[in-house]
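During the no-cost extension, the postdoctoral fellow (Dr. R.K.) reprocessed legacy sequence entries with the updated structure-token encoder. One reprocessed record is reproduced below for audit purposes.
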Amino acid sequence: MTAQTDTQGSVTAVYKVSGMSCGHCEGAVSGEISELPGVVSVKAVATTGEVTVVSAAPLDEEAVRAAVDEAGFELVGPA
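Re-encoded structure tokens follow.
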């Protein structure tokens, strides 16, 4: 995962997720990741398979993996 800290102290990370093919998929992945503690925003893009997550602090990759699994998709790794 490539994590980047911005000027407000939040962390932006981009993950690669396989299996997303539509807006419903994007919503399912975004919804599950949004429930993780500290997550400020999530943007999933089915066409690229990328999920951009902004959080107050770096997230545990296993927690993100579990959230993606719960949505029915697979976390491939960092983008």
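The CA atoms of residues 43 and 55 lie 12 Å apart. The mean pLDDT is 92. The remaining legacy entries will be reprocessed before the final report is submitted.
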